[in-house]
Amino acid sequence: MKKIGIIGLGNPLRQDDGIGIILIEKLTRKKNNFAENIEFIDGGTGGISLIHLFAKFDIVLLIDAVDLNAKPGDYKFFKIDDKVCSDKNINFTTHEENILNVLKLSEKIDEKPEVYMFGIQPKTTDFKNKLTKELEHKTDLLLSKLEEKIKTFL
Amino acid sequence: MSKDLSINVHHVTRVEGHGNIVVDVKKGEIKQIQWQVPEAPRFFEAMLRGRHYDELRPITSRICGICSIGHSLASLKATEDALDIKISTQSQILRRLAINGENMQSHILHVGYLAVPDLLGVGSVFPLVGSKHQDALLKIVKLHRISNEMSDLICGRTTHPIRLIVGGFSMVPNKKQLMDLRKKLQDSIKPTKEVAEVILSVADKIPDFTRETEYIGLSSNEEYALYDGYINSTDTGAFKDYKNYTKMMQEYIVPQSTAKYAKHARKSYMVGALARYNLNSKQLHPLAQEVAKMFEFKPICFNPFMNNIAQLVEFVHNIEDSIIQVDKLLKKEIKDEKPIKPKKDSGQGVGVVEVPRGILVHDYTIKNNKCTKANCIIPTNQNHANIQHDMEEFVPQILDKSEKEIELNLEMLVRAYDPCISCSTHYLKVKFV
Question: Per the structure, how many domains does chain B have?
């Protein structure tokens, strides 16, 4: 059975940047509703340490704030590969090391899982320890869409 | 020379936290050289007041995401000192493993991911993927992983330990886990030596800069001191009155920094791997001594850039020492022990440990099981003044270089100290006039 890691990324002290963490906390509380091969992880602000997490899984789903050039709270589910991540836009998440670099490194050690992203458009990532109203209103909807994706796709 | 120079690095990258370098030179005359720390104070000592002694360890662990094991151990030692708790021999061995694990995690991360790119002439580790140094990078990643796994096994988590509690451990690893760990440690010696060879091949890029200063750290008659020992100085020697640590670590404030500065016998001193090496190098295990020899690294070394090499040497020592500690546990058969209970409910205690960036002190006053007063002296605080004085002496020596080179050299100097700036920002008393 394939091992699946659902990893929330973000900094809850920077408003909508914390959406990945808020969603992973909610999913973790519901973990009994999912298959045993799925693990839910609060990945914090990620960085190079993600490489050790990636090594544990066959499939990884990252949940993070992503600049999609869309309305706050809009979301997109996509596979992270060279097609969506050209060198020009590799810094598409807000965190330290861009994910493509970490994935390249994983690939070299033969540990690269299939990686998908559930990206959510933030309104702002200024310093404040709560989501903007726009994202707060959409949290339940985003959670149900995520649950659906995890159950149907993974 | 009539050079004009204006450097404003805001903020230095590949360090933990935010620090700025400001250099202003007009017509060859140095107007300003400043190492600035602009981060917000964090008030951890105030947070501890009113808390039960059991809560002090988990709260102070959060001071740092890199030294959370070190803060936990300093906190436990201070609490146990205050409440007269003597932990078992098994717990002491496990705590030595925990501190080795953290030193390994932090040192390989700093040397491998943050400092080596400077020596290889790249901006981060990622350009090394696909380069001739890729193999070394992959080894560094694996060594980082074993360090994380060891911390996870001993402490229950890679960061922010949960098994370290007042009076001992809440859970201990079993025999099989310890045997597996031993094998992994043994297997990591060869790749570590290979990484050391790569660093040696570019060691000529380490700037040749020396400034005499004082080095302060723990020393012990029994071992290369990390978990336990007496405070020692290269200038003034042993200081065994640990409860009066403020005589050795005299903190003061400066306008350009939200972190305190510190001094002792001179205007500044240095703590960390280089300080420990300068004080205790004879007690390093044999392979660590061998690696030090490769770099012709001899105490006392006054080049702050050699802190990176001291970290590499300590990494090897930590592997060797961990194997020794695991063998002690396997020989006696590890067992579940109940944590030792306090003998009293009030007292004042001080815990001193060596963490990756240097000597760390926690000092608690506990009344009726609750903390009424706390003081923490953080390693990076103790290094800020030394960084400032190094810069003041280093800049005139490199003024003939290009602005870009000077900037890089100064960033490398800051990175050599491996500063953990967020931890060092502290409580400042502000007096409005």
Answer: 1
